[in-house]
Amino acid sequence: MLKGHRFRSSWARAAYHKMQFDTEHLSENSRHLEWYRLEQPQLLPKELADAFVQLEQDAETEAFLENSYAKSERLLTQLYHRVAKPLLCMFMSVTSANGFLRRGSMFVLFGEQFRRLIVGSDSGDHQQQQEPLFDSLLDLGAGDGNVTSHYAGYFRRVFATEMATVMTWRLAERGYTVVDPITWLPTQPAIDAEPELDAHYDLIGCFNLLDRCEAPLDLLAQAKRRLRPGSGRLLLAVVVPLRQFCEFAPGNRPAQVLAVSGPTFEEQLASLVSNVLRPQGWAVVRWAKAPYLCEGDLYQSFYHLTDAVLLLRPTD
Predict the structure, then answer these.
(1) What total number of domains does the chain contain?
(2) Quick check: is 73 in a domain?
(3) Which of 54, 15, 10, 7 is nearest to 297 (CA)?
(4) Which SUPFAM superfamilies match (predicted)?
């Protein structure tokens, strides 16, 4: 009805566009199939096509979206964030400012989606399990811990790294052990941990960090050294298309460039595996396509990018 209408106020225009966005995504028929399905699977090598796990929007994803809609409607809170964030960024990084304001929580996988990738089955109800499936998790660049929280219950102990000081406070609030971001070791041994368990982890989570760190190839090499020999796995999430950006590096440029190319999601993924992961000694066990969701603001209820989420095992 308002198509082609010229708004006198930028606020009115933003409100109208947000209303359109919410109407589209709040539709009962909106299962966001495009977030999870492959558009051109024929472009994948056979081994990657065979390892693909088809995920779908579940109840937990819907709850995250509904909560994002509700938060974006809190006008006073959103106005406060809009004023406070630029002021805070004069003294701290964007990541720290978001952590201080408790805004912009992110999401990649929820519990059952995580289980399907890690265990390789959607059977069984983890809610009925009395014991965690694994001993230790290390989540690299864990932010405020929101992503970690959705699968932390599968582990007896949860460790995390984070460069932003404010985010380390948020992680500690959740009860996670914050470890040194360089060595990935606890600054002081856990009371109930054996020394060798402090050095090796059952799973290392690396969610949307590879394209945001200064030395991604060194990160992949260090992950192999810190995994439990024989059984340890790396869960790697990478935004596709890949665009490297390092918040804490000079000029925001990484020291190591990832040789990833291709115009489509499938071609970029194949390039990542053949040009980066395989030469670094990693093999794909299973993988999925999933949305990388972030809580929104006054202008949009949520934001999303496309992730390739890969379960990897060392080959050497």
Answers:
(1) 1
(2) no
(3) 15
(4) S-adenosyl-L-methionine-dependent methyltransferases
Q: Flag whether 71 is in a domain.
A: no
Alpha helices in the chain (DSSP H): 10-26, 46-50, 59-72, 75-88, 94-101, 111-118, 146-149, 165-173, 195-199, 216-226, 265-272
Query: What digits encode the pLDDT tens for the residues 235-255?
Result: 999 999 999 998 777 888 899
Would you say residue 7 lies in a domain? no
- What is the domain-level CATH number for residue 167? 3.40.50.150
Q: What is the pTM of this model?
A: 0.82
- Mark residue 258 as left, alpha or beta (left: phi above 0; alpha: psi -120 to 50; beta: remaining): beta
Q: pLDDT (tens digit, 9 = 90+) per residue, 14-34?
A: 555 666 666 666 665 577 889
The residues near 153 (Cβ < 8 Å, ≥ 6 apart) are 111, 126, 132
Beta strands 233-239 and 302-314 are antiparallel
207-235 burial: b if 16+ Cβ within 10 Å, else e:
bbbbbbbbebbebbebbbebbbeeebbbb
